[in-house]
Amino acid sequence: MNGLVKVLGRVGFTVAAVLSVLIALVSYRFLPQGVETAMDFMAHHVQDNALMLYAHIGVAPIALAVMPFQFLKNLRARRPAVHRWLGRIHVAAILVSGVAGFQLAFYTSAGPFAAAGFAILAVIWLSTTGMAFYFALKRQIDLHRIWMLRSAALTFAAVTLRVYLGAATAAGIDFDTAYLLVSWLAWVPNALVMEAYLWTRRGSSRRIAASEPQPT
Ligand code: HEM
């Protein structure tokens, strides 16, 4: 049973990692094509707030692409300096693109419901990442890990948003309705699943600690 869980975990991680890197790469389609062609529903941002748009779509994919490498145990153990440098790049990318994403939220053409979804996501993305970075600096690695997992569940919203949007439009839901739904559904379930995972891990580490022989 434990073996099966491990295999499923590995497969899940590999799929998530490949999707993260692919979506990060595809996000740069605006470079050869221009925002107006590559992401026509973002075109109004070019007039309203081009700086924030380019800060977001130019930098957020770096955070997404770097993320899977930070979870590789071997890399962390064998090349801690690489882990630390990628971590700094990841956090800096979230800082820049999170602030820009927060501002962009208020200019979305999808209305206040979607704006609230994106703005709240930006705030908790920045906060969880800030906590993770703080605990890394303090060398409180268990807490660093917990907050980084929370941050990653939110970074992964960039993947779930596009997967759900594709699935919803393929299922015949019109783009505007699908977009409203995914502005919340892309990240709330991710955050809840991560909390449930952390909660079960806390339970099992308490059980392990309780079964360990106590010093006399
Ligand atoms: C997790 C926090 C994030 C927030 C709060 C956020 C917020 C936003 C907002 C508000 C927009 C404009 C939407 C509109 O005008 O309707 C946007 C667009 C975009 N974001 Fe993010 N974003 C986040 C993460 C990411 C990540 C990690 C990536 C990496 C790929 C990313 C890539 C993009 C791209 C490429 C667009 C242009 C539209 C598209 O191609 O879908 N975002 N984001």
TrEMBL record:
The keyword Oxidoreductase does not apply. This is DUF2306 domain-containing protein. InterPro entries: DUF2306_membrane. It comes from Roseibium sediminicola. Pfam families: DUF2306. It comes from the Bacteria. Keywords: Membrane, Transmembrane, Transmembrane helix. The lineage of its organism: Bacteria, Pseudomonadati, Pseudomonadota, Alphaproteobacteria, Hyphomicrobiales. The chain crosses the membrane at residues 7-31, 51-73, 85-107, 113-135, 147-165, 177-198.
